[in-house]
Amino acid sequence: MKLLILHNRYRFAGGEDRVVQEEKNLLEANGHEVILLEENNHRIANIWDTTVASGKAIYSFAAKKQVKAAISRFCPEIVHVHNFFPLFSPSVYDACHSARVPVVQTLHNYRLACPKAMPFREGKICEDCIDTLIPWSAIVHGCYRNSRLQSSVVAAMTTYHRLRGTWHERVDAYIVFTQFQKEKMAQAGLPADKIHIKPNFIFHSDYSDKYGKRGSYLLFVGRLSEEKGVSILIDAYIQNDLSIPLKIVGDGPLYQVLQEKALHTGYGKLIEFLGFQDRETVFELMYDADFLVFPSIWYEGFPLTIIEAFACGLPVLAPKLGSMAEIVENGVNGLHFQAGDSVSLAAKIKWAIDNPNDIICMGKNARHTYESKYTPETNYLQLMDIYQQVIK
Fold first, then answer.
1. pLDDT tens-digit readout, 43-81
2. Domains and CATH numbers, the chain
3. Predicted structure pTM score
């Protein structure tokens, strides 16, 4: 099968960029011919470029021409769009439609339901725009990059293409990661019968020689920003006198604030900030940890960190919220706690410390979850099933 993949890379590489590349590698490893056509937000260098890109975000004739030419040269059987925003724009769907090539769109975030792409504002979940025709609230609050002007452009894009019928008529299949995400996107007006559930995956070698050498510490891996809930995790330590060491891996805008908070409350030695670490180091830390704590306070899309933990046989403490409540099964491969509640989180941590045999069992179940749901082999079969349905 010949596939054309479209993706607008972010200025700072993240999990989405990695998923796109690994999915391309997976397809090529199974004998498919794949071309990846990319744009890159590094091109948006100044205010003028940002203004131009904002206008093109609604409809880019240049991107339409570019994709049409690529289709003409390559003759793909499917065009798989991962991210069209902002430099490709939804105009790429028209290029595919005119060439009579079916389109699959992976929804890595909530952009078509929320101009910010993350239904989270002022420290809490916000659904003001999910089922509205014109997302006025996002404009008023400047949700996208704290700019009312840029938020207006994104709102104009989603509204224009909803009225025009783009989301219904120009996309043959949407891919989401969980049932929760499917329900939210259907609530936002996307056709439910076109939404397919296919989670992400990771490449991971056998872990049998690593299992069992747990190191009596908790682990957090992720961006140190408000929505990730790391402050709540530190509060769980401070307010409930937890004594098990905590290793925090990652960087972000709250790094210094959180580190100072731990130091000033006497937890500087117990809570260790390791900063950014490469993937292999993260895996080694996961093999040695007792469990991963994932205290996010928004819905999340599909956190690769959780799947990496499962692959390492590491159970996960996650809030009973959004996709996380679906990926982590309470009492099976991890534990749930009340989202945003440091007392609830501390109680679960204490229970886990007091019940090591249960945690070992959950760790084995976590690895089984990875092997049954999140391997490349399983993901490839799911992806091909979607492709075949679209072609038929």
1. 666 655 665 567 889 999 999 999 999 999 999 999 999
2. 2-201+376-391 (3.40.50.2000), 218-373 (3.40.50.2000)
3. 0.93
